[in-house]
């Protein structure tokens, strides 16, 4: 069977600017279908939400799956699944139906797929029950359920215990999810599928991708197990790798801050087997937005399995940054290499460039969209007696942001000049490099408001 599934998932959909993510790479491999006959129950969702292009693309994907399995079992497309393997079709809506038993006739299987029509609720428990009933307990064939669905359970018993009973009996479960009009609970698919979850579940928001997902699964089922696996992962420049956990198969190591290598000697050569690697990355850039995690990820093995990993994206929120003051413009000067002194007219020096400079950043919490903010900064110096002396006041207008919700706004580089001749701190005021005891107070209010004075009519009696 070769690599029957591959996946890459991240632990969160959104992080802060310097946030950390756990990344999981997973593979599942199984032996060759020719020497290891396999019975496959293809379980297809025909609930009402599948009407239209989703149903058409699912049918195309299911028939492509059947064709690939058929050709792999005997090397020719002769309309018969060979080498002792079988496929059966189960479809479900409010109830499930065994549209065929486990058979070898490609024409019969495709006719059953073509006859499906959409309508009704979604009963996953009955679908798993009908699929399990297809298998012959006396058969030595490998047993596989491929569950396709585009929605959550709406009727029937809870499906998780039924799926658990199937796994306990030795059945391997794969789940393909389409994010359709009813939505898909990915955590439920992970719960139903065989472990590791990441390598037994594939989800797409685009029904046009269904044929590709079915084809990739079928193609990998027909290959032998994989040997001499090498996976090279390079993450995007906005991230660094902070740690790599030991995988459950093979060895993994960091090549540099953005690159790791995972090698596995063999996987799934005698029985279905999964491998997973977890590592942690941290965002180091200072920009917000949707960020891809991996710059590239490559796979190779001796058997030539073709493996594609998903390309997860995380939203990074660095907040809104306002810089009310710019640094003074520098004046260029050049000293000749043979000169001991240089005399240069540096022009005017303005007051903000004199004295010691206190520079502060402050975060205004929960600023709502579309509203400007007035920020006041009051700076005082405290003498030995605890008395405060004014050192400065600044007001800043923070422009409105246009995010969807209220958010924090970082105001950077609020500067105050502290002339040395005003030093009242410490035992020896005016001493060079004397510590200055300061207090800063911040006051912030929305400028924009929908408040209006009440208009009251005067009552004359």
Question: Could you please describe the fold and organization of this structure?
Answer:
By secondary structure, the protein is α/β, with parallel strands linked by helices. It folds into two domains: 2-317, Rossmann fold; 321-327 and 352-446, Immunoglobulin-like. It contains six helices and 23 strands. Strands 6-5-4-7-8-9 form a six-stranded mixed sheet, sandwiched between helices. α1 (53-74) runs antiparallel to α2, α1 runs parallel beside α6 (210-221) and α3 (124-134) packs parallel to α4. The longest helix has 22 residues, at 53-74. The N and C termini lie far apart (96 Å). The mean pLDDT is 87.
Biggest sheet architecture = 6 strands, mixed
Q: Whole-number average pLDDT?
A: 87
Number of distinct beta strands:
23
Oligomeric status of the shown chains? single chain
CATH topology of the largest domain: Rossmann fold
Question: Any idea what the CATH superfamily of the largest domain is called?
Answer: von Willebrand factor, type A domain
Determine the strand fraction and express it as a percent band: 35-45%
Alpha-beta content class? alpha/beta
The N- to C-terminal Cα distance equals 96 Å
Largest sheet: spatial strand order: 6-5-4-7-8-9
**Helix count, per DSSP?**
6
The CATH class of the largest domain? Alpha Beta
How does CATH name the architecture of the largest domain?
Answer: 3-Layer(aba) Sandwich
Helix coverage percent: 10-25%
- Which spans of ≥5 residues are poorly predicted at pLDDT below 50? none
Rg calc: 33 Å
Q: Spell out the helices and strands N to C.
A: EEEEHEEHHEHEHEHEEEEEEEEEEEEEE
């Amino acid at each position: 069977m070769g690599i029957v599934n591959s996946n890459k998932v991240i632990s969160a959909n959104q992080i802060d600017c310097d946030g950390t993510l756990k990344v999981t790479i997973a593979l599942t491999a199984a032996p060759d279908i020719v020497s290891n006959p396999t019975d496959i129950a293809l379980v297809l969702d025909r609930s009402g939400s599948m009407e239209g292009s989703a149903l058409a693309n699912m049918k195309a994907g299911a028939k492509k799956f059947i064709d690939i399995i058929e050709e792999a079992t005997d090397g020719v497309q002769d309309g018969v699944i060979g080498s002792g393997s079988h496929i059966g079709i189960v479809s479900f809506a409010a109830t499930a139906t065994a549209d065929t038993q486990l058979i070898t006739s490609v024409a019969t299987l495709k006719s059953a797929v073509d006859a499906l029509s959409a309508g009704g609720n979604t009963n996953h428990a009955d679908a798993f029950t009908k699929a399990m009933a297809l298998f012959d307990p006396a058969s030595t064939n490998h047993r596989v359920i491929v569950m396709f669905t585009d929605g959550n359970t709406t009727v029937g018993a809870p499906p998780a215990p039924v799926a658990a009973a199937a796994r306990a009996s030795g059945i391997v479960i794969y789940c393909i999810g389409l994010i359709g009009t009813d939505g898909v609970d990915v955590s439920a698919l992970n719960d139903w599928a065989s472990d590791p979850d990441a390598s037994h579940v594939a989800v797409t928001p685009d029904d046009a991708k269904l044929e590709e997902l079915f084809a990739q699964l079928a193609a990998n089922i027909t290959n032998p197990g994989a040997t001499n696996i090498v996976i090279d992962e390079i993450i995007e420049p906005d991230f660094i790798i902070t740690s790599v956990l030991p995988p459950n198969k093979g060895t993994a190591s960091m090549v540099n801050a953005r690159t790791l290598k995972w090698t596995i000697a063999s996987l799934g050569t005698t029985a279905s087997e999964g491998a997973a690697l977890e590592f942690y990355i941290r965002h180091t850039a200072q920009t917000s937005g949707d960020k891809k995690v991996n710059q590239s990820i490559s796979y190779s093995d001796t058997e030539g399995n073709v493996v594609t990993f998903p390309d997860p994206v995380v939203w990074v929120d660095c907040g809104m940054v306002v810089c009310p003051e710019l640094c003074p413009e520098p004046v260029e000067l050049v000293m000749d290499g043979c000169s001991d002194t240089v005399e240069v007219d540096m022009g005017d020096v303005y007051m903000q460039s004199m004295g010691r400079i206190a520079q502060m950043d402050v975060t205004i919490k929960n600023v709502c969209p579309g509203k400007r903010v007035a920020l006041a900064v009051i700076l005082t110096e405290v003498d030995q007696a605890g008395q405060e002396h004014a050192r400065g006041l600044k007001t800043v207008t923070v422009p409105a942001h246009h995010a969807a919700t209220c958010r924090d706004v970082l105001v950077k580089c609020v500067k105050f000049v502290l002339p040395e001749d005003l030093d009242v701190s410490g035992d020896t005021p005016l001493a060079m490099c004397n510590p200055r005891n300061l207090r800063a107070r911040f006051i912030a209010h929305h400028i924009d408001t929908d408040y209006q004075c009440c208009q009251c009519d005067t009552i004359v009696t």
